[in-house]
Design a protein that fits this description.
single chain, mainly alpha, 5 helices, 0% strand
Amino acid sequence: MSGAARLAWFLDKGLAASFEGIEEVGQDLIDAWALGDEPDMDALMWSFAVGMGSGGIYTLGGAGMNRLFTKGADLADKAAKTERAKKFGVAMDNLTKAIADSKTAARMPEAMEDFIQDATEGKLGELYIDGHALAQYA
């Protein structure tokens, strides 16, 4: 994390804690005015400190939980991608074997080579081959 990003992170968490402290002071002021009492400055400062402390704990705890869950989701996503890559590799191996053993490859090896070259270089764009139709040429 860069210095600016770290500063922004601390400012965000500090502001969240400060707003919690301000909210506590506001609640104490409303209580005092509703009861017709004079606000006690020492009690207001204590409310602000307690509010900031609890706001800081909840904010940092939430940030920690968010980081933990994000890391867990990233690891699960990486594992899923690895599994898909393995399955894709097996499928491509099977396809390569099927193409090598196909009647078309045996009858017209140059045409099959051209097709494979065009397919691997992306010259064909999107390509869909129905499995049943492909089985006819195997």
